[in-house]
Amino acid sequence: MLIIGIAGGTGCGKTTVVNQILNELPEGEVGVISQDSYYKDTSHLSYDERVKINFDHPRSIDFELLEEHLKELKKGNPVHQPVYSFVKHNRTGDTILTQQRKVMIVEGILILTNPKLREMFDIKIFVHADSDERLIRRLKRDITDRGRDLNEVLNRYQTTLKPMHNQFIEPTKEYADIIIPNNHYNTVAIDIVKTIINDKL
């Protein structure tokens, strides 16, 4: 099993890159695991307390469970991926049965901050996008898909997103094997990734 880590700031276009890779490879050979599924369980906190959590800090991610799941998948065992609700700021209690695939893509803003995870990745990709562009995408997504209001999103961006990006996410560029500038459809970078995958498989 080949493991690809795809990181980058919020709204940088990781999902677009993931989908481009999925489109380039045979169906059924690629699986995707999202870091967002591995936010720590916050059932012991009230909703008001959960809202205040800094979800852009590496501490908010259950890296141990993610690492354990990748090890199990590598052995050929299926895992139960948690399901996370951005509306409730907590896991739902449901899980998704995930089977081993030839290629497993792990995507998320903080995945390259964890040394043990980095060691598990065969290819490390960082998707770069202009900060204004990322903010616009984040605004659209949080208001449309996650029921946030404009002031809430902007406040979170200024108080946590931007400082956390500068402190934790941007520095992980140095660990990347490939940096994809995602201001447009980047066919060359995707072709390189596809070639590396086929070569390793």
Characteristics of this structure?
single chain; 201 residues; alpha/beta; 5-stranded parallel beta sheet; two-stranded antiparallel sheet; 7 helices; 41% helix; globular
In short:
The chain is α/β, with parallel strands linked by helices.
Q: What's the SSE blueprint?
A:
Blueprint: E1 2-7, H1 14-24, E2 30-34, H2 47-51, H3 63-74, E3 79-85, E4 90-98, E5 103-107, H4 115-120, E6 123-128, H5 131-145, H6 150-169, E7 178-181, H7 187-200
Parallel strand pairs: 1-5, 1-6, 2-5, 6-7
Antiparallel strand pairs: 3-4
Count of individual beta strands: 7
**Strand fraction band?**
15-25%
Name the strands of the widest sheet in spatial order: 2-5-1-6-7
Which structural class matches the secondary elements? Answer: alpha/beta
Spatial extent as radius of gyration: 17 Å
Helical content class: 40-55%
Largest sheet: number of strands, sense, barrel closure: 5 strands, parallel
Number of helices: 7
Which regions have little confidence, pLDDT < 50, spanning 5+ residues? none
Query: Would you list the SSEs in sequence order as H and E?
Result: EHEHHEEEHEHHEH
